[in-house]
Every structure is written in structure tokens, then in C-alpha cells.
């Protein structure tokens, strides 16, 4: 067991509380009874993933792993947006070095979350396009609130989702549905997402979603943690290894792609059409 004594659990809780004070963009709390951690993304206003938020998520996941977390609930402080995905303003006319770091940190986040030894649930309490969907897909279970959208809309912005993310989508909703969804860049409403298996349960309130998430995590209470994590690694390891082998090459091609004028033009159009905040000319 991860926490054999109440003292261990108390130490872990204090550790996490102390840690959380250092992270303004991700707040981590631990339920002392269950030992489950809740990581709440809180970058105003839509948790768009810039380098700072990605770095903090990556660091949080590392700490949770180190402290033998018993289960993680990932959610948002906003009641409208789980995460709006990559910060589109940072992708526009970018500094190549920063983009390189951003992409490499995004890969790290995926490797740590998708490959975590502890069980994970996303409480999707708001919209989750692109990178927001990626965070949810990396978890083992998704509970979503009604009247929001989720999906991988990269094609609409002018690029293809990377292979590891395509695999995540395929593993979750099946090849045929993934092909339809990815080529059209479809964003699904909550009920549609439930129907195709992109989310596992729907809840009417965040409280209900947290209850459902905890119920999922509690399913593993009697399963030896090492057996659970070995099985998860056996199921997910090949996808992770494929990215690890190709990590640097993918960063290089991503930087080339994003800095290319054709992508910059289509990104500019997407921002002008879809976001309230406009580009400074
Ligand atoms: C070559 C390989 C590359 C592979 C990369 C694959 C991985 C991931 C890629 C991505 O994540 S790309 C990002 C895609 N994201 C989107 O398409 C989301 C766009 N945003 C929206 O659709 C909506 O904003 C929303 C999230 C549905 C929320 O709608 P709502 O009506 O509630 O809010 P808004 O008024 O639209 O937005 C509020 C505020 O937030 C700003 N904003 C929204 N999204 C982003 C974003 N992604 N990046 C930066 N900023 C964003 C928006 O401009 C508003 O700003 P203010 O007007 O308040 O200043």
C-alpha cells in the first residue's frame, strides 16, 4: 500500500499542501481520508497551455509520482473551460526557442500523465478542445459536465495532431470514429462524447462529477498498486516508448511547422474567426 500509516498520509498531505503554495497555476489538495489528490488548473481565464502552465503541470505530476499518489483527479478552477488547449497567442509569430520548450514540455506532460503509475480521472467541468482534450484523454477515466464541448480540432486550425495523441484517441473511441473525428477536427457536445465513448460518464454538477471520479478511483482500493501499475504500463508502454524514441525529431518538425508562414496564416485566420481577443497587427 502506498500509505501504510496515518503518519505517512499526513506527511504526504502536508507535503502537497506546501508544494501547492508554490504553484500559482496548479492547485493541489489531498483528501486525507482517501489519499486522492485533486489538481486544479487555474491559469486565467481559460487554462490555455503556455510554457509556464505546462511546466507546472509537469512538475506537479513528477511530485505526485515521487510521493506515491493513490489517485489523481484533474480538473479546472473555471466553471466554463477545462482547458482551451495550447495558448494560440503564443503559437502566433513565436520565438523558436520558446516553442521548442513548449512542445517538449507538452510531450513530458503527456508521458507523465498517460504513463502515471497511479490511477487518474479527468473531471471535465468545462470546454476541452485540442490540448484540453489531450489532458482528459491521458487520464484513465473521464467524467464530463453537460453543455460543453470536447475533441481534437487541430485539423480546423491547420495541423495534424501528433501520432501519440492520435493513438490515444484511437484507443479510446476506436479507429473508425477516430478517423472521422480527427480528419474533420470535430468538437463533440457532452452527450455526443458520451455516446462515442470519448467520455465515460456525465454529471450535472462538479460535486457529482467528483463523487463519480472518487468512485472510479475507489475501484482499485483492493488491487495491489504494483499489479495495477504494471498492467497499465503493459497496456500503455508501447505508445510511450514510441514517443520517447521520436521526441527530439518531433520537436524539430513541430518548430519547423509552426514557424512556417503557411501555418502562421491559417492560425491567424483561426484566431480572428474564433477568438474574442484579436491579434495585434
Ligand atoms: C504539428 C503538431 C502540433 C500538434 C499540437 C497538438 C496539441 C494541441 C493543440 C492545441 O491545443 S491548439 C489550441 C486549440 N484551441 C482551441 O481551438 C480553442 C479556442 N477557443 C475556443 O474555442 C473558446 O475560447 C472556448 C475554449 C470554447 C471558450 O469559449 P468561451 O465563449 O467560454 O470563451 P471565449 O470568450 O471564447 O474565450 C475567453 C478568453 O480566452 C481566450 N482564449 C480562448 N482560447 C484560447 C487559446 N487556445 N489560447 C489563448 N487564448 C484563448 C479568448 O481569446 C478570450 O480572451 P479575452 O477576450 O477574455 O481576452
From TrEMBL:
Pathway: Lipid metabolism; fatty acid beta-oxidation. It is found in: Mitochondrion matrix. It catalyses: (2E)-tetradecenoyl-CoA = (3Z)-tetradecenoyl-CoA; (3Z)-dodecenoyl-CoA = (2E)-dodecenoyl-CoA; (3Z)-octenoyl-CoA = (2E)-octenoyl-CoA; (3Z)-decenoyl-CoA = (2E)-decenoyl-CoA. GO terms for biological process: fatty acid beta-oxidation. GO terms for cellular component: mitochondrial matrix. GO terms for molecular function: delta(3)-delta(2)-enoyl-CoA isomerase activity. Keywords: Acetylation, Fatty acid metabolism, Isomerase, Lipid metabolism, Mitochondrion, Transit peptide. InterPro entries: ClpP/crotonase-like_dom_sf, Enoyl-CoA_hydra/iso. Its main location: mitochondrion. CDD domains: crotonase-like. It comes from the Eukaryota. Pfam families: ECH_1. SUPFAM superfamilies: ClpP/crotonase. PANTHER family: ENOYL-COA DELTA ISOMERASE 1, MITOCHONDRIAL, ENOYL-COA HYDRATASE-RELATED. Homotrimer. Key enzyme of fatty acid beta-oxidation. Able to isomerize both 3-cis (3Z) and 3-trans (3E) double bonds into the 2-trans (2E) form in a range of enoyl-CoA species, with a preference for (3Z)-enoyl-CoAs over (3E)-enoyl-CoAs. The catalytic efficiency of this enzyme is not affected by the fatty acyl chain length. This is Enoyl-CoA delta isomerase 1, mitochondrial. It comes from Zophobas morio.
